[in-house]
Amino acid sequence: xxxxxxxxxxxxxxxxxxxxxxxxxxxxxxxxxxxxxxxxxxxxxxxxxxxxxxxxxxxxxxxxxxxxxxxxxxxxxxxxxxxxxxxxxxxxxxxxxxxxxxxxxxxxxxxxxxxxxxxxxxxxxxxxxxxxxxxxxxxxxxxxxxxxxxxxxxxxxxxxxxxxxxxxxxxxxxxxxxxxxxxxxxxxxxxxxxxxxxxxxxxxxxxxxxxxxxxxxxxxxxxxxxxxxxxxxxxxxxxxxxxxxxxxxxxxxxxxxxxxxxxxxxxxxxxxxxxxxxxxxxxxxxxxxxxxxxxxxxxxxxxxxxxxxxxxxxxxxxxxxxxxxxxxxxxxxxxxxxxxxxxxxxxxxxxxxxxxxxxxxxxxxxxxxxxxxxxxxxxxxxxxxxxxxxxxxxxxxxxxxxxxxxxxxxxxxxxxxxxxxxxxxxxxxxxxxxxxxxxxxxxxxxxxxxxxxxxxxxxxxxxxxxxxxxxxxxxxxxxxxxxxxxxxxxxxxxxxxxxxxxxxxxxxxxxxxxxxxxxxxxxxxxxxxxxxxxxxxxxxxxxxxxxxxxxxxxxxxxxxxxxxxxxxxxxxxxxxxxxxxxxxxxxxxxxxxxxxxxxxxxxxxxxxxxxxxxxxxxxxxxx
Length: 623
Known about the structure:
Layout: E1 4-9, H1 13-25, E2 29-33, E3 47-49, H2 53-62, H3 67-74, E4 75-81, E5 91-96, H4 98-110, E6 115-119, E7 122-128, E8 131-137, E9 142-150, E10 159-162, E11 165-168, H5 180-185, E12 191-198, E13 201-203, E14 213-215, E15 239-243, H6 246-253, H7 277-283, E16 291-296, E17 303-307, H8 315-322, E18 333-335, E19 338-345, E20 362-364, H9 374-393, H10 406-417, H11 441-451, H12 457-479, E21 481-482, H13 484-493, E22 503-504, H14 505-509, H15 516-522, H16 524-531, H17 537-549, H18 551-565, H19 586-595, H20 600-604, H21 611-620
Parallel strand pairs: 1-2, 1-9, 2-6, 9-20
Antiparallel strand pairs: 3-5, 4-5, 7-8, 8-9, 10-11, 10-19, 12-19, 13-17, 13-18, 14-15, 15-16, 16-17, 21-22
């Protein structure tokens, strides 16, 4: 076989984004997967986005990745979460047709000129003199490459648990990847085991939907990709809310003695924020019920996913417990839930580029780094794909900072703090939330991606047009005066104080109750201006309202970010000997030696490095 610039192991969400990014940038890419029919498979819930995760998908899209476009193409329901809170918390979420999602990803990848495929299991990464050279597969084939990106998800030594029954597997009915993690451990990589789980899949024909609470999508739908601003959804499917009760809990408790979570069979750490149902009824024993979400897996099928009911209990206990839930008395299942254990690598062994510190030209992305979620995986894959290509070309690595993207927060958390449980992104992990909103990811990232050759000219031109129009509308509103008799009747209806004299429209818009459509009733000129925005109207109006209403908060957070960012410019020499700095705490020295931070900013974020330790470092550096 020919030698490649970039070779990607695994075609999940991380691998698909990595392969696409490297190929679109011009590298020759080989994507190796065990099953060509499972590209970007939604192994767990059939949804993309959610709290903070939705922001990540929009960031991937803003940079020219495909997760947003694929989500829009396969979407069956859209909701903007947290609308009752401030815009920093708004998070898009979509239910997808699971089969269509994977089919769309495969179609996109097969359409990329620089991308080849090979279906096989990788058993070894060939390493010579601490530099990757290629891979060796189960079929004995060697494929050579200048850089390699490992994105094997939950497959490395994957072990599936259903009660006392356990079997090797990376997903249900799919074999694990054997040998790969062993070959890397021999090269000095620190490994660990993690666990995740999934619920039973339910036959929708056997569910009594009439007694469940229907959860519809947002009126008018929505979209993830900035390129789809003029393609609203026309049809949405509903999800449904159900609840467990004490009778359900009692039935599930009968299987606890055979649960691998509690009998010592599983010793690895599972996701804190997505526990199994048996874990929930033990940990929250005071709770009489737990909320569940019944989600369709596709537009035309009958298979449903019961979010919140993940389990590794014996299949019969799961089944009997399920049928105690109101609405599921006659439920049938396609397969039971299960837990899966798998190998991961300590992410502090990575640079921010996703390249490993131990082996040159080897990159890790996705769940192999201890993360959970399609969105977190896709983000890592995108950055790894970009940087593998740039490493081949001899270019400077592409790094996103914490005030530039949730992707920057994600990667910095991983490589600086490490993980002791599956990492999941939340808005609370970002100290600059109001700067990292879902509405302006294109403003933050599209120009950066265009400059490195990933985002298309079409995307960049659309971004420039949108924000030029937005800024013009903001300027117009700041100059426009509104007279009392033009708006007081509306203000009275909205129960906000009336005007005594003419006031700038921007000052009125700062009131929580007021929106631009209230102002357009009072000003014919503003109405004409808004109507002239075309298909971008809704996006621009939302952005204008946020920028005017929250201008003070945005400016204050930007000043804070700029002040802290100065620490990122104080570099720490790579040959710094921390053992000589006796004024730094013992824990601080140990953590600094392990992480080897590149600058004071990164050092200050390491758990165990105190502000006093940072002060000593600053003195040492002559600052």
